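During the no-cost extension, the postdoctoral fellow (Dr. R.K.) reprocessed legacy sequence entries with the updated structure-token encoder. One reprocessed record is reproduced below for audit purposes.
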Amino acid sequence: MKQHIPNALTCCNLLSGAVAVTMAFSGQFTWSFGLIILGALFDFLDGGSARMLGVSSPIGKELDSLADVVTFGLAPSVMLMQVVRLETENSTYAWGWWSLVFLLMAAFSALRLAKFNVDTRQTESFLGLATPANALFWSSLIAAWPKLPSFAQWVPIVLLVCMLVSCWLLVSEVPFFSLKFHSFAWKENSTRYIFLMGCVVLTVVCALLGHFLFAGCVCIVWYVLSALILRR
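Re-encoded structure tokens follow.
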């Protein structure tokens, strides 16, 4: 029985992502964001339970990647596509089917996951931005979208440029630290501690400004900057 627990949790991750996609198509972006967060929780639990129970398997690894493609690749891509459609549908600059270009991020997310599975260098850290971090950035941004200033006709261009940057980060060789702690010593984990303290401050500031949902987006920007500036 215990060998099925990790895979069941992975399937919960997949289902969370699938429902997030459905919610995104109906414009329910806050729900999509919450379901992506829920999927991330299941993603954390499935790996932890597999190690704790000693039942990891090649099938579980492949299933995990398939679930991550949906939750952290397709779901934020559909959210991005839909917000562009909604933002421009009543303007002269309506994108219509051109908004499908934002699904490109789902393809790059799948490529990033495939590279991670075969890259033996990424055991203690990452090369390229992890798909959950990328998904958190976009889902948080889009969930907070109604309260953010509008750029009118420039919205699709700004988002397209940002998406292309994130696609590059996903498959790049840029080193990113993981949040796995093997000890609590400051010397070994100074970057992680500084990052987490910054996240607390940024989340509080966003909450005080009435943009709590935007905190995830800001924290991922801080994560990228921390990896580039603080990593030793």
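Strands lie at 125-127, 175-177. DSSP finds eight helices and two strands in the chain. The remaining legacy entries will be reprocessed before the final report is submitted.
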